């Protein structure tokens, strides 16, 4: 049986297609889409216990406040004895998101303070084989957000001239990852809170990984006016803070489908290192060490600002990827060539997506004996393009 599909790609003036909402984490049901870690921090060796769901709710370290925003916080009520850890929370999304996804997080407050290490990031099934994307991360009294990718050797960060942030490290396989420093004001710490918070967006695309930050006064109208029934158009967002184009890092090779993670740890291998801790926090106590002068003892006022206040997290897709998929990853055919391909499977799903730096692609998954022929795949908007599926 043969099916013919005709697509007209006419007069696209926008560099990107709209993204459709697939998951909204907000309001009273915010926590329904997340798993609680329920263990000590054996990942970054922080001096915390990440509580399970029941204990986090009971101890009021995870809840929805009167404004309808989700709160994740460090325990600031307990007097922690020496050699014990302080309680906090780590969440991991139940859903997994493949290439073709867009994530937006609207935050009113980010945890900060000496010893505090918050993060919003993504991770694949096996680290570092499947990649990690650090969207929000900082330590102690840092005044700026730091973005990073982590990968196996072979993925590097280039420096597109339109990137707004400052590249600090280019090799994504180093312990720090390939990092970018946010240069816009009020991206972290007290300044972020004083400005009323802000919004981050991350495009996880075959053409690269791109991240934007806007302080509250500068959030684009397309995001402010969006709701759970809206699609999102990236065309008016301007240049991203961080650009990781695929010309120096093959995204589909180094990054598998990702889960979203929100966590707060204390001290650990970054915030607790003397070279990172002492320049900002040497005045916190007599021992000049992160754990003894912060984690031990009373939690207030030391950890009164160690909390996330989250208006929402939203996940979008172009149609070329869906959350929690057990299908093999997408195969992308980029514009500018005529290609014939065949593969094997049981079903076929086809979508159109956009490249973060301009241009378009078709994405498809094949799971049974299906032959797909592409012809005249020109993506400049001036052709009607077709492909044939021979089932």
Automatic annotation (TrEMBL):
UniProt signal peptide: 1-18
Domain GH16 span(s) in chain numbering: 23-279
Keyword Signal annotated: yes
Gene3D superfamilies per record: 2.60.120.200
MF annotations from Gene Ontology: hydrolase activity, hydrolyzing O-glycosyl compounds
Source organism per UniProt: Moniliophthora roreri
Highest taxon of source: Eukaryota
Gene Ontology BP term (one): glucan catabolic process
Residue intervals passing through the bilayer: 359-379
UniProt keyword annotations, A-Z: Membrane, Signal, Transmembrane, Transmembrane helix
InterPro entries tied to this protein: Beta-glucanase-like, ConA-like_dom_sf, Glycosyl_Hydrlase_16
Protein name (record): GH16 domain-containing protein
PROSITE patterns (UniProt xref): GH16_2
